[in-house]
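Hi R.,

Here's the input for the magnesium ion complex you asked about:
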Amino acid sequence: MSARVMAVANQKGGVGKTTTVVNLAAGLAQLGRRVLIIDLDPQANATMGCGVDKHALGRSVYHVLIDECEVREALVRSETGGFDVLPANRDLAGADVELVEMMARETRLKMALAEVENDYDYILIDCPPALNLMTINGFVAADSVIIPMQCEYFALEGLAELSTTLRKIKKWLNPKIEIEGVLRTLFEPQRLLSVQVSEQLKKHYGDKVYDTVIPRNVRLAEAPSYGRPIFAYDKSSRGAKAYAALAAELVSRLEPAVQPQSDPV
Ligand code: ATP
Ligand code: MG
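And here is the predicted structure with magnesium ion in place:
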């Protein structure tokens, strides 16, 4: 079975994309799944957040995209997370422009991943906060998209723009792409606005909205500065419980258990 490839995207900045990639990956690894994360953001927050030093990289996703190396040659292990990482650093900032001149610029990540897709159960792609060529490479390589969102006033407008882009991707570049799920992040249940936007979200996206909600939790914000997913930083925090629940919800949605035969008594 080849991996389920999921892009984590929202062109709005600071909504919890990277936090979700790192902690969902660690949650899935804790459930015994083989996981790879791909950092497509030159900020390299996902790379650093799982304990990989972006300044010490030999090869990175940039070299894969410009066809200077294979995915396997650039992989590193997140010891604190229990998964593999195709890391990024500042080199990636120029890739958008460099790739414009190159052949198959939108499908490069997808083609590169073919080599490793049987090595993993899940591949999570951290997209930058823009609908640029990196994000498009993510969408073309992916089976589906996880959309983290903060329940703020303009959030739904942002989702409409993202949906338009996904429709175009589906038409021109990747007919199988679908929305995997919409994840409410940085959630503050005591705020009326959070609750109202949450209701609207359910109206629009129905059961695509994950039951699991990620609360605002300071431990989640602290963990990356130690290069650790939340489980290796404070596993009893509310943030850790939420991401563990998300990993379990995702697995139960994607890996429906084989129904046991009823006992013929
Ligand atoms: P960007 O668009 O810049 O890539 P992003 O969508 O990847 O941002 P994150 O980097 O995951 O968002 O989160 C933005 C900031 O909010 C970070 O400082 C992160 O540590 C913090 N943060 C994310 N989720 C939570 C949470 N549930 N509770 C508290 N802080 C959080
Ligand atoms: Mg990010």
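One thing worth noting: The pocket of adenosine-5'-triphosphate (ligand 1) is lined by residues 13-19, 41, 45, 129, 185-186, 214, 216-217, 220-221, 224, 239 (CB under 6 Å).

Cheers,
M.
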